[in-house]
Structure formats: structure tokens, C-alpha cells
Write a structure and sequence with these properties.
It catalyses: AMP + ATP = 2 ADP. The chain is α/β, with parallel strands linked by helices and 217 residues long. 47% of the residues lie in helices and 16% in strands.
């Protein structure tokens, strides 16, 4: 089973990715993890990626695509894979189609966790963090057991990251919507797109995903 997992920031993609790989023996391929592993292993493509990142530049598509191709040839992908964070553009999606065809590992599904952006803006803007240990809380559904006291370390100072401030969150979501929409259309045209309702309990979201995956087994 070969998948792409998509969703806007705050939609619960990370949580669902963890649940998927626990239930199904497939490799979870996060772009960030892939870059870090290639750089740590000192591969030629890893060195190229590092040289761009060290200069604060975007890694070119050909390097990223080369890393994806290398990663999809590793033994843990034989039972399947789940891409998270790639592709991000139509050009990358087209390259992935070629790569997976060449490796005989075509995509089976693209699962999009869909949540209203207004709800996501509220979710993300409600996050706050313990200044002492970094534990994350949310004013909407995950506050410390004792108000003003971190569950993990007992600290009393909290802060909100700049990334989680309302104006930054709105901009971040808009950028992601503009990036994701063409990809969703691309995969819908190819009858690969499945959309699940992310605005419900975590287990209910996973139950929807399980139904999709069970139909492919």
C-alpha cells in the first residue's frame, strides 16, 4: 500500500501518520526526516541538500526528487510507503509519478485530512508552550491539569511561538491552501484522492482512513 498523506497545518496529519504506521507495516517517509538521514549518512545527494540548506536556500527539485527516489528503494518500503511533505508542487507530483513507475511502486491513494481553515486558525492560535520544558498545550482542549502549572515539569511560565500568533497562522494557512489546492486537483483527476473529515475525534478520523485502506487490501 503506497500513500501520500496531506492536510493543512493543525489538521492532525502527524497524529494520523503515527496511527497508520502502527497498524500497517509501511514506511513513513517525512521529507524532513529524509533530508536529515541523507545528510547524517553523508550521501552525495545529502551533501548537496546540506550545501543549499546551510546557505538558507531551498533545496532544488532535482535534489529532493533524487532523495525520494533513493529512499523509495530502501528495504522498508517493500511493504509500502507513506509520503508526508512531498510532493509540494505539480512538478514534483509529475516527477513522483515517473519515479514510482520506474520503481514499480505506484501510488494507491492520496489521503487528505480536511478541516475548515477557520477551525484550524482557532486551533493553531490557541497553542502555548511551557518556557521551562517545552511541553505544548492548547487553550481549546489541552490545558494543564492545574491552571498555570506545567504537567511535565511544574513550571509556571508559558509563551506563544511567533508561528502560532493569529496573523502568522492566517498567512501560513493561506500559503498552504494555495500550495495544496493544485495538488488535490492533480490527484483527483487521477482518481487517487480520498478526503476524510478531520474535524472530529482522532479515533473517528482514523476509522475513516481505515475504511479507505481496508478497501485496498
Amino acid at each position: 500500500m503506497n500513500l501520500i498523506l496531506m492536510g493543512l497545518p493543525g489538521a492532525g496529519k502527524g497524529t494520523q501518520a503515527e496511527k497508520i504506521v502502527v497498524k500497517y507495516p509501511i514506511a513513513h517517509i517525512s521529507t524532513g526526516d529524509m533530508f536529515r538521514a541523507a545528510m547524517a549518512n553523508g550521501t552525495e545527494l545529502g551533501k548537496q541538500a546540506k550545501s543549499y540548506m546551510d546557505q538558507g536556500q531551498l533545496v532544488p527539485d532535482e535534489v529532493t526528487e533524487g532523495l525520494v527516489k533513493e529512499r523509495l528503494q530502501e528495504p522498508d518500503t517493500e511493504s509500502g510507503y507513506m509520503l508526508d511533505g512531498f510532493p509540494r508542487t505539480i512538478a514534483q507530483a509529475e516527477a513522483l509519478t515517473d519515479i514510482t513507475a520506474e520503481l514499480n511502486k505506484p501510488l494507491d491513494a492520496v489521503i487528505n485530512i480536511d478541516v475548515d481553515p477557520k477551525i484550524l486558525a482557532d486551533r493553531l492560535s490557541a497553542r502555548y508552550i511551557c518556557k521551562t520544558c517545552g511541553a505544548t498545550y492548547n487553550k481549546l482542549y489541552h490545558n494543564p491539569k492545574v491552571e498555570g502549572t506545567c504537567d511535565r515539569c511544574g513550571g509556571h511560565e508559558f509563551f506563544q511561538r511567533d508561528d502560532d500568533k493569529p496573523e502568522t497562522v492566517q498567512n501560513r494557512l493561506q500559503v498552504n491552501i494555495e500550495m495544496n489546492t493544485p495538488l488535490l486537483d492533480f490527484y483527483a483527476d487521477r482518481k487517487l484522492l480520498y478526503t476524510v473529515n478531520g474535524d472530529q475525534d482522532i479515533d473517528a478520523v482514523f476509522a475513516e482512513i481505515e475504511k479507505i485502506l481496508a478497501a485496498m487490501a
